[in-house]
Amino acid sequence: MAEIENLANSRKKNKRENLGDRGHRLRHSNVPSRTVNLVNMPFFDVPDDVITYIFSFLPIKEAVQASTVSSRFKKSWFFNRKLCFDKDFAKRHAQKDFMNIVNRVFDLNVEQNIQTFSLFFDPTGVEDAVENWIQISIDKGVEELDLNFSLAKVPYKITTDFADIETIKILKLCRCELDLLPTFQGLNSLKTLVLWRIEINSKSIETVFSNCLSLETLELVKCRRIGHLRILAQKLRRFKALKVGDCLGLCQIDIDAPTIRSIYYSGIFILFKFDEISQLNDVILNFRPLRGMGKFFRRESFLCDLSHIPLLSATSTLLEDLSPAFFHQRTLRFNFRNLKELQLFMENAVYCNIYHIAYFLKKCPRLERLFIDLRGFSFDPQENWIYQRELVQIDSQPLRCLQFVKMEGFKFEEHEIELMKYLLERAIILENLVLVAPKTIKQGILNVRNIPFCRKICARSPVSPLAKVRFYDRDTDESPVPTHSKTWFEW
Predict the structure, then answer these.
(1) How far apart are CA 428 and CA 402, in angstroms?
(2) SS3 at position 269
(3) What is the pTM of this model?
């Protein structure tokens, strides 16, 4: 694939501009065949201004590659509006070479407005150049600004205050220091704010909600100094999603957002307080395991506020915390009355077993789709399992609406077979049971013995004998997948 430094030279005929210190010329043989074939297509009858407009929306790397196909396209990348110097680009260039390319692209860009400026770069020692690039993109009315300084040893101090900037709709910052004063006036068109490894306090977040009234999505990952996060979005009519992941020091989240649709949380157990979340539709609660046998949720209000949601993904840690471990413990009163899809992540479970799963399923009377992720996990029944097993067997409450069950990472272990039997005996209208073997070096999991054994169990089930059982290995799985992925952010 051609490198981005092979740009057209506006001063030398029949030669290409070398933007980097180590660049090389691009030959037609380096261009994908589907690009070369353009010369034989009616596309070449399109007026120049239309071609220029089309090329302006290509990412800069693709625009440069396309400019080498024909002399007619030679300067087309000068009009590019997507200036993306991402992680893949950074891997190919040393800092000096990287800077030369970015400087040349900005020098030759003739567009008055650009759509995207994306930068993955270590700004150490060249902060003035970085600020210049940021300011140029702002002056050109950039709509999406993505600044990733994760390579830096210390957080980058942004000197731009974003005041009176009306064009930015998407702002993504990583490894920066950002302080927004209460008097901040700017980013009025901002729709998406993504902050990764940002030194920011809760007051600055409150300033965002008081000023950025078009905000739709807020994502916070590995941000410190927040402490008590307050999402006060009563004035926002489009705010839809809050995503918080691994924010060290965070102890509580208060949410007052009438239009919010999604809440994704990953981290330790913290307090949640909800005032207005009537439109909430889907939730991810990826809690880390608790130490010991202590209980975190000792009141029902948090769960009652979520009782109306139709879609939930949660870790086994939540099930362990909600289920009474002993006979004398008080039972929490909660009910997910509208839940239609549930996904359980069993990895990192401390003592979760069928009892905890069954207890939670009883609180979901309208559940239709159940996904249980067993990857990286094996049931390890504790001493209490002897008594808990009796409770599971005695309780005959049916799962009246459950139609689809999928267990991924199914290893045909004894406790997994027992869980399968439990579901078959309770799901009275079950249509499909999908078992996906883990990706492992061990051979023979889907062997001639295991599959007939499971089919026989299904056939003998007095409740759901017509359920279709399907077996897949990880690489051939074509069955339905859950709405949520295992993690909503990749570090």
Answers:
(1) 8
(2) coil
(3) 0.82
The CA-atom distances, in angstroms, between 291 and each of 95, 294, 317, 320 are: 45, 7, 10, 12
Give the separation between CA 480 and CA 491, rounded to whole angstroms. Answer: 26
Alpha-carbon gap, residue 455 to 470, rounded angstroms: 9
List the pLDDT tens digit at each of the 491 positions of the chain: 334 444 333 333 333 334 444 333 333 334 444 444 544 555 556 666 666 666 656 666 666 666 666 666 656 667 778 888 988 888 888 889 899 989 988 998 888 899 999 999 999 999 999 999 999 999 999 999 999 999 999 999 888 878 778 899 999 999 988 777 666 777 889 999 999 999 888 888 998 998 899 999 999 999 988 999 999 999 999 999 999 999 988 999 999 999 999 999 999 888 899 999 999 999 999 988 766 545 566 555 677 889 999 999 999 888 887 877 544 455 667 789 999 999 999 987 777 888 889 989 999 999 999 999 998 888 876 666 666 777 777 777 899 999 999 999 998 888 898 898 889 888 989 999 999 988 765 555 656 567 776 777 766 666 666 788 888 888 888 999 999 987 777 65
Amino acid identity of residue 89, one-letter, is F
At 72, the amino acid letter reads R
